[in-house]
Every structure is written in C-alpha cells, then in structure tokens.
Design brief:
This protein is mainly α and 153 residues long. The protein is 73% helix and 0% strand. The protein contains eight helices and no strands.
C-alpha cells in the first residue's frame, strides 16, 4: 500500500532503475533507485529492488539491510520477507530464516516458497517430520496456484 503513495517522479526513477537492473546495468540502476528514495524515503519497493541488485552483486549484508528497510517501511508487504528468507536460507542462517518465515506466513499462510524454505531449515536441523510437513504444504500450495505446470515423462 505504501508503494501507491509514491510521487510520480519517484515512481519514474524506480521504474528506470528496475529496467536498468533487468538489463544487468546494476550501477546505473542503483543510481536511479537511490534517487527514488531521495524523493520518497518511505518507498518499500525501491528498498526491495536495491536488495535484489545487491544480492546479484553478492553484497549480502547490504541486500539484507535493504530487505529489512522495505519490511520496516511496509510490514504488510510479503515480497521483501520472501527475499530476506531466501537470502537467509542461502547463507544457512536458519534461525533467522525461521523468524522471517514465521512473520511472513502470518501475512500469507499459503505461500509455497515460505513452506519450502521452512522445509529446508527443518531438514538441516534434522527435524525430518517438520521438513516433510512443510514440503507437503509447499507442494500443496504450489498446486493450488493458477500457473499451469508442465509435466515431463
């Protein structure tokens, strides 16, 4: 919801930054995203996008900081929680990942990726019952999505 309150010029800078990032022009993209934040400091989408770029650049502490700023700015927006949990899982920081996924699952208990992250965390903690439960929830929730699956035999 907070993203909708961004001024037009901030949105334009954000869109330009995202477009440049999609073209792998990360430094230029970051410049535009930072301009967006100067125009509208409470812009969670800009923080989240900077986090995505920082992760691509393997600047993991900076990526985490940006995801957290996005969450702080709009605690009801799910995407930065998913990105943060994915980063924490990739770093094998399962204790923090469980905290992040718990908060995110309060927002959307049917999000397949969050259940997958939890399954990986439980598996790494040797909690096979928990891992199986979460993996089944991930599979179930993925099947309930409207995106068609391609099955190969």
């Amino acid at each position: 919801m907070v993203n909708l309150m961004a001024p037009k010029k901030a949105v334009q800078e954000f869109q330009k930054g995202r477009e440049l990032a999609e073209k792998r022009k990360y430094d230029e993209g970051l410049e535009h995203l930072k301009k967006a934040l100067k125009l509208y400091a409470a812009y969670p989408d800009a923080y989240n996008q900077i986090g995505l770029i920082q992760r691509q650049l393997a600047h993991l502490p900076e990526a985490e900081e940006m995801y957290r700023k996005a969450i702080d700015t709009d605690p009801k927006w799910l995407e930065p929680y998913v990105n943060l949990a994915g980063l924490q899982m990739a770093r094998s920081d399962f204790a923090e990942m469980f905290k992040t996924t718990a908060k995110a699952l309060e927002l959307d208990a049917s999000h397949a990726s969050l259940h997958f992250f939890q399954a990986v965390g439980f598996f790494n903690a040797q909690n096979l019952d928990g891992a199986e439960k979460e993996a089944l929830l991930a599979e179930q929730n993925e099947k309930n999505r409207s995106i068609p699956e391609v099955q190969m035999i």
